[in-house]
């Protein structure tokens, strides 16, 4: 991470703006920590779609959308905002972590992962070829494919925009749109982009990824870019321990990486609103305790010099 541009320095960076992430943000801010919230354009679609919420203590008979607006309203009261830059990597450093969002980097002392559960599972061999011809970030890795052929699997609107960016670099761009026509409205594709419709089944390759297998045909390319709403947790944070249930955490929300905590649906079932909000609070308070302990250790070391 040498020579990177650090735009901000935070005490707690929260990745995700669902109930767990927003709860973590509010509790971290209440403890006078500098908090950053990184989320999507719409927080949170899962809650928005709920026809009713009957089991949240003290707030009966609300729709999911009414609950969502109350959560966001709480952020407004506390003058907290959501950074819409998508985090694609979290990397440990000597005194904290660097968070990458395309060509921007943010510095934080602790991280709370509240990424929820992705409804889109990895395609066959996707994870195995990550970093070997498969990438989740066109801005990060696009320059490596200047003058070459690339495939973009676009699961959201951002994927279409990334295809346009790659069209400026690559000799050929093949776009496989895996999103609804409604979500694609308003995006004009560069003329050189070739659109191929089909459902991606897996990555083709040997030592290096060489293409994508669709249901009815195979596509070849020098590089493949897979653009979704969220990155798999263990790919987002290298070395993070996960299980079949989700990210492995203790009762404080601590992961196997010191300074990294997790909360909400990404830690496993039950996938309940109250559980997510509660875990967000616990993880934030654990991050605050971790920060205070680091500060006390630093003071003790100075006192002994």
Automatic annotation (TrEMBL):
Its EC number is 1.8.1.9. Keywords: Flavoprotein, Oxidoreductase. InterPro entries: FAD/NAD-bd_sf, FAD/NAD-binding_dom, Ferredoxin-NADP_redctase_2. Residues 10-280 form the FAD/NAD(P)-binding domain. It comes from the Bacteria. Transmembrane segments: none annotated. SUPFAM superfamilies: FAD/NAD(P)-binding domain. GO terms for molecular function: thioredoxin-disulfide reductase (NADPH) activity. The keyword Flavoprotein applies. This is Thioredoxin-disulfide reductase. It comes from Desulfotomaculum nigrificans (strain DSM 14880 / VKM B-2319 / CO-1-SRB).
């Amino acid at each position: 991470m040498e020579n990177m541009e650090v735009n901000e320095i935070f005490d707690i960076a929260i990745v995700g703006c669902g109930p767990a992430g927003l709860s973590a943000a509010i509790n971290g801010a209440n403890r006078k920590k500098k908090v950053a919230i990184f989320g999507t354009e719409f927080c949170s679609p899962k809650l928005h779609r709920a026809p009713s919420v009957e089991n949240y203590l003290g707030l009966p008979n609300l729709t999911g959308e009414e609950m969502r607006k109350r959560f966001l309203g709480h952020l407004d009261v506390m003058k907290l905002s959501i950074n819409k830059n998508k985090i694609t990597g979290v990397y440990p450093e000597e005194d904290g972590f660097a968070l990458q969002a395309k060509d921007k980097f943010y510095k934080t002392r602790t991280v709370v992962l509240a990424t929820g559960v992705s409804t889109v599972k990895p395609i066959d061999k996707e994870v195995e070829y990550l970093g070997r011809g498969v990438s989740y970030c066109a801005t990060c890795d696009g320059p490596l494919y200047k003058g070459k052929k690339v495939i973009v699997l676009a699961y959201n609107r951002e994927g279409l925009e990334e295809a346009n960016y790659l069209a400026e670099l690559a000799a050929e761009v093949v776009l496989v749109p895996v999103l609804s026509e409604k979500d694609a409205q308003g995006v004009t594709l560069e003329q050189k982009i070739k659109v191929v419709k089909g459902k991606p089944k897996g990555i083709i390759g040997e030592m290096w990824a060489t293409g994508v297998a669709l249901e009815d045909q195979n596509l070849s390319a020098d590089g493949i870019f897979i653009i979704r709403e969220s990155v798999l947790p263990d790919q987002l944070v290298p070395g993070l321990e996960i299980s079949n249930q989700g990210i492995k955490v203790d009762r404080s929300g601590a992961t196997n990486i010191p300074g990294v905590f997790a909360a909400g649906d990404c830690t496993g079932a039950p996938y309940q609103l109250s559980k997510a909000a509660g875990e967000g609070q616990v993880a934030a308070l654990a991050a605050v305790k971790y920060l205070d302990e680091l500060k006390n250790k630093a003071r003790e070391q100075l006192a002994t010099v």
